[in-house]
C-alpha cells in the first residue's frame, strides 16, 4: 500500500494495517454493515438487535472518533 493511501486511511480513522484484510475478507468479519463499533451499536439499537457480527473486528480497524 502506498504512503499516500496509508495517510488517507489514517485521516479517516481507519487502521491501514487491517484495511486490506477487511476488504478482502469482508464476509468473514462483517455481516450487514461495516464501520466504527459505536456506529454499529447505534444501528443495532435502532433495529432492535442485541449484537451484530463485526463489532470485534471493527475495534481493530476503526479508531475511536474524537
Which labels suit this protein?
single chain; 66 residues; mainly alpha
- Oligomer description: single chain
Secondary-structure-based class equals mainly alpha
Cα Rg = 12 Å
β content, as a range? under 5%
Q: Report the principal-axis shape.
A: elongated
Biggest β-sheet description: none
Mean pLDDT: 81
Fraction in helix: 55-70%
Query: How many separate structural domains?
Result: 1
Number of strands: 0
Q: List the secondary-structure elements in sequence, H or E.
A: HHHHH
Determine the N-to-C terminus distance.
26 Å
Number of helices: 5
Taking pLDDT < 50 over at least 5 consecutive residues as the criterion, the unreliable ranges are none
Amino acid at each position: 500500500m502506498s504512503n499516500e493511501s496509508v495517510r488517507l486511511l489514517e485521516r479517516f480513522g481507519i487502521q491501514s494495517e487491517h484495511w486490506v484484510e477487511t476488504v478482502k475478507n469482508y464476509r468473514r468479519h462483517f455481516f450487514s454493515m461495516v464501520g466504527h463499533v459505536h456506529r454499529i451499536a447505534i444501528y443495532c439499537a435502532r433495529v432492535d438487535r442485541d449484537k451484530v457480527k463485526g463489532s470485534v473486528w471493527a475495534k481493530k480497524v476503526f479508531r475511536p472518533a474524537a
